[in-house]
Design goal:
Elements (H helix, E strand, L loop, with lengths): L4 E4 L3 E2 L6 H10 L3 E4 L4 E2 L11
Parallel strand pairs: 1-3, 2-4
Protein name: Pyridoxal/pyridoxine/pyridoxamine kinase
Keywords: Kinase, Membrane, Transferase, Transmembrane, Transmembrane helix
Organism: Lacticaseibacillus paracasei subsp. paracasei Lpp14
Length: about 55
């Protein structure tokens, strides 16, 4: 059996519906074996929260 795999290189947010937290279930749903390469680890998505300090 030949299993197809995929490298997902994105940021990983702890909260929210963005980045790798969306890509992982999509890849698995397509029957791919996902391997992760996080580019940044974030506690939450910063969009709309104002200036990052």
């Amino acid at each position: 059996m030949n299993t197809k795999s995929l490298i997902i290189s994105q940021d990983l947010c702890g909260v929210g519906q963005v980045s790798m937290s969306v890509a992982l279930p999509l890849a698995a749903g397509l029957g791919l074996t996902p391997y992760v390469l996080p580019t940044a680890l974030l506690s939450s998505h910063t969009g709309g929260l104002g200036a990052n300090t």
